[in-house]
Amino acid sequence: MNMFLETLIGGLLAGTMYSLVAIGFVLIYKASGVFNYAQGSLLLFGALTFVTLTDQGVPALGAIAVTIALLILTAIAIEKLLLRPLTNRSPMTLFMATLGLSYVVEGVAQGIMGSQVRALNLGIDDLPIFLGDIMISQFDLIAAGVALAIVVVLSLLFNRTRIGIQLRGVADDTRAALSLGIDINRIWQIVWAVAGLVGLVAGLLWGARQGVQFSLSLVVLKALPVLIIGGFTSIPGAIVGGLIVGAGESLAETYIGPYLGGGITPWFAYALALVFLFIRPAGLFGERQIERV
Amino acid sequence: MSEINLPAAAEPVDPVGLKAVGIAAAIAVLLAAPFLASEYWINAIIVPFLILSLAGLGLNLLTGYAGQLSLGAGAFMMVGAYATFSLQLRVPDLPLPLALVVAGLIAGAVGLLFGIPSTRIKGFYLIVSTLAAQFFFEWLFLKFPWFYNGNSSATIALSRGLSFFGLEANTPHGRYYLTLGIVALLTLLSFNLIRGQTGRNWMAIRDMDTAAAVIGVPVFRAKLQAFAVSSFILGIAGALWAFAYLGSASVQSFGLTRSYQILFIIIIGGLGTIRGAYFGAAFVSLLPLALDWLFQHVFGGHVDAGLLQNIQKAIFGLLIIWFLIKEPEGLARLLGLQRAQGARRRLFPS
Amino acid sequence: MTTSAGPALEVRNVSLSFKGVKAISDLSFQVERREICALIGPNGAGKSSLLNILNGVYIPDSGEIVFEGEHFRRMQPLEAARRGIGRGFQNNALFSGMSVLDNVIAGLSRKSRVTLVEEAFRLPRALSQEKAFRARALDVLKLFDLEKHAETVVGTLPYGVQKKVEIARAIVARPRLLLLDEPLAGMNAAEKQEIAAVIARLNRELDLTVVLIEHDIGIVLKLAHHVVVLDYGRKLADGPPETIRDNPDVIAAYLGAQHAEAVA
User: B225–C116: do the CB atoms touch at under 8 Å?
Assistant: First the structure.
């Protein structure tokens, strides 16, 4: 039983990290209807920039400021050079364009800052904590706390601020929002920047744990099943989806893995997502699309 | 036969028969190529170019013609390669050509299986199913030694080499002609499908799938056919990649990067065109050479291989975006060989 | 299947809603065999949604469809096509990357009997079917005077021409019930007359039952044998054109609102 609980809790905590990555996708998908495949590369770009700056002796605060500024500039550039020319194109075209974007970001970031693995120390000890007999990673706990804080901040942002309300307007009914004079291009810039910042946080946490390297960008592949399960348009969906995938992977590896020779984590989340797709194609919290002909 | 010649869409009129001359010239060049090019070019550039073209063709049938996005091209290539290996190993009486066909059929069946979700989900959602294939087969073929016959390096290679109806094909020329023959045959068959009922069904689904179902296009069946045919071709391309080009292959030869590469080939070459796969593959094969040459001769220095790879990556990314924005029909249209009339068409209308 | 007497189509107590918003409420009406029935009503009245239910694109919340004596809780798109329900769409749902001829031949898909292998190797059966399909599609194009556009990529043609291609595609497989969503929209007066004449002729010569949505009241009253008026998903009136013209409810709800509408 303890082993089960430990596995479950470890999985749930890892799942909050998936949620954090998935939230970046949801923001962008809601505002611009794009499944942003480059989210993983932007996450890598943010973490890599921060590490490179601190390695050069820039103090952490300054490094964060520069990184954030770069992410905002990147968001503006993406909006102007990619989203705007592709307005009204199909979701699939947009998706493929972000796949291209991920290559650009990765190529440029690694071309300038190098491809080797970089250690990142956030000053968080990864010591285990014991709750009774159950061992929990302190780092995971803090990461989960950060993820939770971001969710709270984002919901405040979207429910209380003018920009947030405008964003929700754009997500609900783009045409109506346009006719009300909302500057959709600026909304896109803001959303991509916010998604970049959320990605930065995820990138730093993830990077602190496994080093800042190319494989960070592959978290995009983890986020996809999370979004399928939770629904592309829902932040609560991203959180629940992340927890389901995290817990599911962890339990499956422990209890099913041994029968299959182990190492099933890379595809298990996808198998789970496919099952969900057949039961609830729109995801747990997503909205069903109505076809118009 | 010519009176029933039915182009998939309007083709420019060609009163002088320029096309026939062009095709004859192309065939002559293709047949003579081994005597014109160095062994290095045949082994390292022309053969992989042909195989990548074939893979691009396979994916283009699914993605460019039937409108079903796939990030799992590598998985179906992998299935074809491992199936060929197993067949040659365990059914030694089966000649290589038949083994390739059976391996293609196995890959086609696997593709069909992973295509089933396409009947429930659309657009980029479908990448879940194809990525599932990608990760699953990477795991499967690495996890169980049966698939690579317990080889200590977990690689597969044909112990008897390549032979085609008694003809040895282990020389560069042999590999070239073997590859060329298979690629040409499959291109012809694909072309026939595209301009017939199957191709029409696929394009109808791509252009407007709801309307297609309403006017009586068997959407379910046509989508599965697209997955099966595409994977059949990808499977054979995978086998060629492993045994006619690499010699010995592993799971890494068909990783996610390979899937992206094949997708990029058809985006750059031209979605929904047969020749697009060739243009795209040529581009992908030649760009690294061109960049290398550029750095050697123009910037006059040796550039770190890692940096070169990153530059290449960024250039590919930029080109993908540029083509999607400006020219969804890719090089096939840019080079002016595409249909004369007709404004730019939008692939994947929403 | 076709021999049973009674109406061609019966809509019985059909309701449909999207995310809780009613699009069609408890709608019932009948369409007799070989009649042209016009659905009219302001935008948002649920007309297109109804056609989508008949084609199986939407699933009604309740009610049933009776087509040629057979009862359906819901239709499947392919099943509807197989049973002979043809359809033209409101905002041209043509296959924009294909030629006019290929678009029309696509309407024959369900009649195809050749296998993939036969096509790949161009075996005799595939070739003869292709030839037959092509001839049949060209015949239908002639009906609309479209042969000259046969090889043109359809997305490049003007809207009015595209509308004709749509009708051609809908009738090429000889449906018994033809559903048309604003077939005359975006055409000039002469073109409207021409298409209305073709619809009347198809109805007469092929015994084709037609249900169409149209905003041009002048044409509707001349062309239709039977008019059903919808407003906010409910049936407002149902009867021959003469009685509809004089119905005060209709005048208030629909004819008065007509000018405010954008005819796409």
Answer: yes
DSSP B152: T
User: Does the distance separating the beta carbons of B131 and A270 come in below 8 Å?
Assistant: yes
Count of structural domains, chain B: 1
C chain contacts of residue B122, beta-carbon cutoff 8 Å: none
Handedness of CA A10, B129, B208, B328 (dihedral sign): positive
Q: Are residues C118 and C234 in the same domain?
A: no
| DSSP character string of A1-40 | -HHHHHHHHHHHHHHHHHHHHHHHHHHHHHHH----TTHH
What are the extents of the domains in chain A?
10-212
* C262 and C182 assigned to the same domain: yes
Clarify whether residues C199 and C241 are in a common domain: yes
Q: Is there a single domain that holds both residue C215 and residue C262? A: yes
Residues of A in contact with B125 (CB under 8 A): 228, 277, 281
CA distance A293 to chain B (A): 7
* pLDDT (0 to 100) of residue B123: 73
pLDDT in tens, C228-241: 999 888 998 999 99
Residue C89 lies in a domain: no
| Overall number of domains in chain C | 2
CA distances from B252 to B71, B123, B137, B138, B142 (A): 15, 27, 11, 8, 10
What single-letter amino acid sits at B266? I
What mean pLDDT do residues B91-115 have? 96
On chain C, the residues whose CB falls within 8 A of the CB of B330 are none
Same domain, C184 and C236: yes
Q: Which residues contact C238 (CB under 8 A, 6 or more apart)?
A: C29, C226, C227, C228, C229
Phi, psi of B236 (to 5 degrees): -65, -40
Mutant choice from B313, B316, B327, B344 vs A, greatest count of A C-beta within 10 A: B313
Residue C168 is part of which domain span?
94-173
| Residue to test with chain C: of B208, B214, B225, B273, most C Cβ within 10 A | B214
The residue from C146, C173, C200 where one domain ends is C173
Kindly provide the ipTM of the predicted complex, given to two decimals. 0.90
Structural domain includes residue C135? yes
CA distance B76 to B242: 13
DSSP state at residue B346: P
Residues written for chain C: 264
**Whether residues C7 and C133 fall in one domain:** no
Percent of residues, chain B, with pLDDT higher than 70: 91
DSSP reduced 3-state for B141: helix
> Measured between CA atoms, how close is B213 to chain A, in angstroms?
12
* B213 contacts on C by Cβ (under 8 Å): 56-57, 77-78, 81
Q: Which single residue is written with the structure tokens 């499977």? A: B235
Please tell me whether residues C73 and C203 are part of one structural domain.
yes
The torsion angles phi and psi of B10, rounded to 5 degrees, stand at -55, 135
* End-of-domain residue from the set C117, C152, C173: C173
User: What is the mean pLDDT of each successive set of 10 residues along chain A, which is 293 residues long?
Assistant: 86 89 89 88 95 93 96 95 89 90 95 89 79 82 88 84 81 75 86 93 89 87 91 88 94 91 89 89 77 68
CATH number where B246 lies: 1.10.3470
Asked if A290 is an interface residue toward chain B (Cβ–Cβ < 8 A), one would say no
Phi, then psi, of B146 in degrees rounded to 5: -55, -35
Higher-pLDDT residue of C19 and C110 is: C110
Question: Contact C55/B214, CB-based, under 8 Å?
Answer: yes
Q: Which subunits sit against A, judged by 3+ Cβ pairs under 8 A?
A: B, C
In tens, the pLDDT along C171-219 reads 999 999 999 999 998 888 998 999 999 999 999 998 999 999 998 888 9
Pairing state between β C62-67 and C226-231: unpaired
Distance from CA of C171 to the nearest CA of B (A): 9
Task: Inspect the interface and report whether the beta carbons of C18 and A290 lie closer than 8 Å.
Answer: yes
